[in-house]
Specification:
With 582 residues, this protein is of the alpha+beta class. The protein is built from 15 helices and 20 strands. Strands 13, 14, 15, 16, 17, 18, 19 and 20 form an eight-stranded mixed beta sheet that branches. A five-stranded antiparallel beta sheet has the order 2-1-7-6-3.
């Protein structure tokens, strides 16, 4: 049975009845005028829809290209910082963190470090990438020491090479360059995928530079100057201006329709192009059907047909005009269609849609402002949750299943007593840099630093079903990275660094603790206390945990050894303690 409500059925029958009664009473004459008018309206509607689709596609393509380039630039910056970071003295740790950063930036082929003169020093290359970094042909000119830029596109070997360069500055002096190179077909794959999804063809979206040379979406380096849409737009296609234009133009295989959008900041342009026959495919069948109907009944009641056509098409024009207003984000305009049928219902639905879009825009803007403000005072994940409405900035909290990890440097007290405060601070900065990266890599939150120890929470503020496994993986990585860095620390600071780690899982209250004027997001409860006690009794290089952790991680590839029942300070009963085996 149909799910239509009685009101929906009445509206559909009402509009159908209008057509039938008019045809019976007036001899179906209005179809002659209506057929011609409908074809014109359909043509205009399809042209408008194609223009809007073209603008939407080039906007989406521009956003995707900019996002890919920004991701590549950010990854290049991070790899450059990691490869030259003075706080991480372990080469193995530095290399592994750099390789993981490159792996997450899927569009990058490699990142290379150069001397100020352009001589290649070192490079990180994606696995399976055949093209290797080469010495810089020319040192980048006019590049700020505080920010990088994308170098001019180079064409050769059937590819367009895009590279991002950034100055490496230490102690106020330029020490060299870091250069990230995109994979040869990265932007091609991005544009072809978008073209297939929007146009069902892979060659409908093209990226060109200011000289109309193809960067992606076609044969790299080939010129479109005075061809395709550029021949139709001429001087209007100025890359220095921010604009979006749609035009019809003659092509080698017939009439074409295309849209051009400039990227002035990059000096590039995005173009969509496809045959009119493909864009207006639906028009041919509609024209044929309308012509047959018009010829069959065109002799009947032509005068009344014009009246009926006008009554019918006026609300359609009003609704088309309303779509233009909403496309221009003038959400305050309302439909004035009062036909008592589906067109009126459509106009009312569009008005409600505009209200929802306006509220959504306001909510998004409000959320963005709130998140920007809150991120100055709260952890980033908490700030995002607060701005999204999933977390409230107020004293108190909520019960949550979490895992808590405490990691402490064994024998640190003696080092802190004997070493100058500056050396103690420098060592802690290096240690916490590594431990923080490890915690973030496994999705944890750094709750606080307590002297030479760190407290991390897994499963809050963002719920994680596998919070216990994440905590143990983080503990293993902490021991591994500290062990790799220990020889350098022994030589630099004279301290033999080993960690003692305690991990516990269970319920805790997570939320804001403090006062109305100053609060801190943290976790409290017995689960936290037990994890801290386990860390205090753990031996150097040892990770102690409770049965609650082993139960959640059973069958996940971890090995545990029971150390029996142990009394823990603050607990009335002994607790069975387990050791995480290496």
């Amino acid at each position: 049975m149909s799910d239509a409500s009685p009101n929906d059925l009445r509206l559909r029958v009402s509009l159908r009845t209008k057509w039938v009664l008019f045809a019976l009473l007036l001899g179906l004459g209005p179809l002659v005028a209506l057929a011609l008018l409908s074809v014109r309206i359909q043509r205009r509607g399809l042209e408008q829809a194609e223009r809007e689709l073209g603008v939407a596609v080039v906007d989406q393509a521009a956003e995707a290209v900019e996002r890919s380039l920004d991701d590549a630039a950010e990854a290049t910056h991070r790899v450059g910082r990691l490869l030259t970071e003075g706080k991480i003295t372990s080469e193995d740790a530095r290399l592994e963190l750099s390789q993981e950063t490159l792996a997450r930036a899927v569009v990058l082929a490699h990142v290379a470090i150069y001397t100020p003169e352009g001589k290649l020093i070192d490079a990180i290359t994606r696995a399976g990438e055949e093209r290797k970094p080469e010495p810089l042909a020319a040192v980048p000119e006019g590049l700020s020491e505080k920010e990088g830029r994308w170098l001019a596109v180079e064409f050769g070997g059937g590819v367009a090479e895009l590279r991002y360069a950034e100055a490496l500055v230490r102690g106020g002096k330029r020490r060299g360059w870091v250069v990230g190179t995109l994979k040869p077909r990265a932007l091609d794959e991005l544009l072809q995928d978008l073209s297939r999804r929007r146009y069902e063809q892979a060659d409908r979206v093209v990226l060109v530079d200011a000289e109309r040379r193809v960067i992606a979406g076609g044969a790299p380096g080939s010129s479109l100057a005075s061809k395709d849409i550029f021949a139709a737009l001429g001087a209007r296609a100025a890359v220095a201006q921010k604009l979006a234009l749609t035009s019809e133009y003659p092509g080698e295989q017939g009439p074409m329709v295309g849209t051009l959008r400039t990227l002035p900041e990059r000096g590039w342009m995005l173009v969509t192009r496809r045959p009119e026959a493909e864009a207006y495919r639906a028009l041919g069948g509609a024209q044929q059907a309308s012509l047959i109907a018009a010829l069959a009944v065109g002799a009947l009641a032509a005068a009344l047909g014009a009246f009926f056509a006008t009554r019918t098409t006026r609300p359609i024009r009003a609704l088309v005009g309303l779509t233009h207003a909403y496309a221009a984000r003038r959400f305050g305009e309302r439909a004035e269609v009062q036909t008592g049928d589906e067109l009126q219902a459509l106009g009312e639905s569009m008005s409600r849609m505009a209200d929802e879009l306006q509220r959504s825009d306001a909510e998004l803007a409000k959320r963005a402002r709130a998140q920007a403000d809150l991120s100055r005072f709260l952890p980033e994940a908490v700030a995002e949750a607060v701005a999204s409405g999933f977390h409230h900035v107020a004293l108190g909290g909520e019960r949550r299943e979490i895992s808590v990890l405490f990691a402490d440097v064994v024998a640190f007290t003696r080092f802190a007593e004997e070493a100058p405060p500056e050396r103690v601070s420098a060592f802690l900065n290096e240690l916490f840099t590594i431990l923080t990266e490890v915690i973030f890599r496994h999705g944890g939150t750094v709750d606080k630093f307590l002297g030479d120890s760190v407290m991390a929470v897994f499963g809050a503020p963002t719920p994680q079903d596998d919070h216990a496994q994440r905590a143990l993986l983080a503990a293993e990585d902490m021991h591994r990275f500290v062990s790799a860095s220990a020889p350098a620390w022994r030589e630099s600071y004279g301290i033999d660094v080993q960690l003692a780690i305690g991990v516990n899982s269970g319920e805790a209250v997570v939320g804001n603790l403090g006062s109305e004027s100053r609060m801190e997001y943290t976790a409290i409860g017995d689960t936290v206390n037990v994890a801290a006690r386990l860390e205090s009794v753990a031996r150097p290089g040892q990770t102690l945990l409770t049965e609650a952790v082993t139960r959640r991680c059973a069958g996940q590839g971890f090995s545990f050894t029971s150390l029996g029942q142990h009394p823990l300070r603050g607990k009335s009963r002994a607790v069975e303690v387990f050791q995480l085996d290496a």
